[in-house]
Design brief:
The complex is a heterodimer of chains A (about 250) and B (about 500).
Chain A (H helix, E strand, L loop, with lengths): L1 E10 L5 E10 L4 E5 L6 H9 L4 E10 L2 E2 L5 H6 L2 E4 L11 H15 L7 H14 L4 H5 L8 H15 L3 E5 L7 H14 L5 E6 L12 E6 L2 E6 L1 H10 L1 H8 L1
Parallel strand pairs in A: 3-8, 3-9, 6-7, 7-8
Antiparallel strand pairs in A: 1-2, 1-4, 4-5, 9-10
Helix pairs in contact in A: 6-7
Chain B lengths: L1 H11 L16 E3 L6 H10 L4 H15 L23 E3 L13 H9 L6 H6 L6 E7 L2 E5 L2 H7 L2 E4 H7 L1 H7 L10 H9 L4 E5 L8 E7 L10 E6 L4 E9 L6 E4 L2 E6 L4 E8 L11 E12 L5 E8 L4 E4 L2 E4 L5 E10 L4 E10 L5 E10 L4 E10 L7 E10 L5 E10 L5 E10 L2 H9 L4 H12 L1 H4 L4 H14 L6
Helix pairs in contact in B: 2-3, 3-9, 10-11
Classes of the chains: A alpha/beta (about 250), B alpha/beta (about 500).
Family (chain B): Belongs to the iron-sulfur cluster assembly SufBD family.
Pfam families (chain B): SUFBD_core, SufBD_N
GO biological process, one term (chain B): iron-sulfur cluster assembly
Chain lengths: ~250, ~500
């Protein structure tokens, strides 16, 4: 589903190279974890996959279902099924969460040439998904992410993911700032979305989240490259020995 | 920084030529000779079949105007206007006053149809769901048709063109015209008093709640024609009226002048709600052409417990110079000003309000949202003045500015003057930019760039949109989206 080939990318503003020859393949149905120490390029990778303008790809390619997506803007990539659950969801003052969901769902349907949702159908879908994630309906009337607690923001991200039904879900440090109960709810939400035609990339610093969202593959990112790949045991090894060991071997 | 460079490029390519109302209508017109003189004023007065006292009033104003200087304090920049190069009167031929719908030139009706203005009463009456709005349509210098007149008459409401009112209700005109904005008020208001051609007149008698929204649509069609409309709204004791004006003009290379005066009078316990959706032609991408919108709007809360509320959505005009104000004369009276001002391309907006607290326990509220894009400049200028005898006066002001791109400007110039120690005056102001974070986040959900900007901006102006009559809120939101088209790539 996703094939990243020898990717090099830098910050557009100052030319700092962050991704330096990264290779990664994620298959449909797979849950891939990307781990790595701070500054290894994990979040940057999620931004580049979703098309943020602040980064320039200087070499290599990103193929999504066999096609390069480098020329597509974030909205085009989103309507092709790429979803990023943000580490720090952004506040949108004055735009009710409900209204935002409706615009997003209908814009994506429009881009795919589908009919807009009827209001009752839309409301039913939102209610069901919100109940699964134990989201208070009152929250849906509030402006998106404005004054939300850390847990509410992350749940709102998963709610959007559930409703937009993407094919490639990228979770950027979704566990940060969550207590254990909230973490379980979020993980259950993600697990419910697992399916043979959907891939999930879990970007995380710690093993903790991977106890709840069990990965098929684990990749260690360091200085903009995947320096080691393995199965879920690799995450446990990292937890026990820290990154220094693996980094030392790779160097 | 590539992202910034891209924004700069986008702004350079800005295309405000997407003005959707820029068509011209070829219609036979009856025009006054070019230029301004006593004779021209006599010509206008004669065309309107005005009584002698009205002519005298105009001529007095003209004499006064000749001694006045054009104001220069606003943050706007434009070449000197040659008032002798303008036409002061243009009317569709055979149309000296309003008539019933059947008598109106079908070509004119098609203009209003193109603009989406419902003049067809029958059609509106047939639609059960449609809101019923009485419309006065002003084309260049004359009012062409006023709808629902009979039904309003039954309720005792007078809604007609001001030219008609001068002939039919001279006693009301004599009593109220110029009583809020005197003929000596300011350069453009004085000019308006001399040469005003048409506008609306509304009188809601004691205790009457106007049964429907009233609205006026202004259209400047003729080249080099100034439009000087004059509107007067009076709500007697305990009366209520909600009024909406909308404005459009064709695209032209020359600048056109629009200098209106609006006066509102609210007696004891009366309430007037005045909403404007202003979408005059803003000029092209290079800043050529567009309307000069120099307007004096003032409401007088003359009675106790009266209330006047101004709501404006300003998206058009090359230059806007406009400060809808409230004189809070009656005790416990209340003034409100809700404004959305969107500037793009080379537009210049200097707009705000004045709240003059004279009576006891008077209160005022100002919510202003300025959005600047392109190379435009957007200034909020407001005055809150609490006079000596205004015990327990209250004011709350909130001015927020939003910048799109980095070639535009936002300015906030509040004046606060307090002469009574019991006053409470609050002022809040913020300036922000649509952040790359916000735009990226919204687009990541599959919302294309222009829709993303429109969504964020509509969130920003939500507090004001809520104040608009329901049926116009949607229209206003769309208009804001259209006005910002081309502000991003």
């Amino acid at each position: 589903m996703l094939e990243i080939k020898n990717l090099h990318a830098r910050i557009a503003e100052d030319g700092t190279e962050i991704i330096r020859g990264l290779n990664l393949t994620v298959k449909a149905g797979e849950v891939a974890a990307i781990m790595g120490p701070n500054g290894s390029g994990k979040s940057t990778l999620s931004y580049i996959l979703s098309g943020r303008e602040d980064y320039e790809v200087t070499e290599g390619d990103i193929l999504y279902n066999g096609e390069s997506i480098l020329d597509l803007d974030p909205a085009e990539r989103a309507s092709k099924g790429i979803f990023l659950a943000f580490q720090y969801p952004v506040e949108i003052p004055g735009v009710a969460t409900m209204q935002f969901l409706k615009v997003a769902m209908n814009e994506q349907r429009k881009a795919r040439g589908e009919e807009e949702l009827t209001t009752p159908d839309f409301i039913r879908r939102v209610k069901e998904a919100a109940a699964e994630l134990k989201i208070d309906p009152a929250m849906l009337r509030r402006p998106l992410n404005v004054g939300f607690s850390g847990g509410e923001k992350k749940r709102a991200e998963i709610l959007q993911m559930a409703l937009l039904e993407p094919k490639l879900c990228i979770l950027d440090e979704t566990d940060s700032g969550l207590d254990i109960d909230a973490l379980k709810i979020v993980a259950d939400g993600v697990n419910a979305l697992k399916s043979p035609d959907r891939a999930v990339i879990v970007i995380t610093h710690y093993q903790r989240l991977l106890e709840y969202i069990v990965p098929d593959t684990v990749h260690v990112l360091y200085k903009g490259q995947v320096i080691r790949s393995g199965d879920k045991d690799l995450a446990l090894e990292l937890e026990a020995n820290g990154y220094a060991d693996i980094i030392g071997k790779a160097a | 920084m590539a992202a910034v460079q891209e924004t700069i490029d986008q702004v350079r390519q800005i295309d405000v030529d997407q003005y959707k109302y820029g068509f011209e209508t070829i219609i036979e017109v009856d025009k006054a000779p070019k230029g301004l003189s006593e004779d021209i004023i006599r010509f206008i007065s004669a065309k309107k079949q005005e009584p002698e006292w009205m002519l005298e009033w105009r001529l007095d104003a003209y004499q006064r105007w000749l001694t006045m200087e054009e104001p220069t304090w606003a943050r706007v920049d434009y070449p000197k206007i040659d008032f002798n190069e303008l036409y002061y009167y243009a009317a569709p031929k055979n149309m000296t006053g309003p008539s019933s719908l059947e008598e109106v030139d079908p070509e004119l009706l098609r203009v209003y149809e193109k603009l989406g203005i419902p003049l067809q009463e029958q059609e509106m009456l047939a639609g059960v769901q449609k809101p019923r709005v009485a419309v006065d349509a002003v084309f260049d210098s004359v009012s062409v048709v006023t709808t629902f007149k009979k039904e309003l008459q039954k309720a005792g409401v007078i809604f007609m063109s001001i030219s008609e009112a001068i002939r039919e209700h001279p006693e009301l005109i004599k009593q109220y015209l110029g009583s809020v904005v005197p003929t000596t008020d300011n350069y453009y208001a004085t000019l308006n008093a001399a040469v005003f051609t048409d506008g609306s007149f509304v009188f809601v008698p004691k205790g009457v709640r106007c049964p429907m929204e009233l609205s006026t649509y202004f259209r400047i069609n003729e080249k080099n024609t100034g439009q000087f409309e004059r509107t007067l709204i009076i709500a007697e004791e305990g009366a209520y009226v909600s009024y909406l004006e909308g404005c459009t003009a064709p695209q032209r290379d020359e600048n056109q002048l629009h200098a209106a005066v609006v006066e509102l009078v609210a007696l004891d316990d009366a309430e007037i709600k005045y909403s404007t959706v202003q979408n005059w032609y803003p000029g092209d991408a290079q800043g050529k052409g567009g309307i000069y919108n120099f307007v004096t709007k003032r409401g007088d809360c003359r009675g106790h417990r009266s209330k006047i509320s101004w709501t404006q959505v300003e998206t058009g005009s090359a230059i806007t110079w406009k400060y809808p104000s409230c004189i809070l004369r009656g005790d416990d009276s209340r003034g409100e000003f809700y404004s959305i001002a969107v500037s793009n391309g080379y537009q210049q907006i200097d707009s705000g309000t004045k709240m003059i607290h004279l009576g006891k326990n008077t209160s005022s509220r100002i919510i202003s949202k300025g959005i600047s894009a392109g190379r435009s400049n957007n200034t909020y200028r407001g005055q809150v003045s609490i006079h000596r005898r205004a015990e327990n006066a209250r004011n709350f002001t909130n001015c927020d500015s939003l910048l799109i791109g980095d070639k535009c400007g936002a300015h906030t110039v509040p004046y606060i003057e307090v002469k009574n120690a019991s006053a409470q005056v609050e002022h809040e102001a913020t300036t922000s930019k649509i952040s790359d974070d916000q735009k990226f986040y919204v687009m990541q959900r599959g919302i294309p760039e222009e829709e993303a900007i429109a969504l964020i901006v509509n969130g920003f102006v939500k507090d004001v949109i809520q104040e608009l009559p329901m049926e116009f809120a949607v229209e206003a939101q769309k208009l804001i989206g259209i006005s910002l088209e081309g502000s991003v790539g």
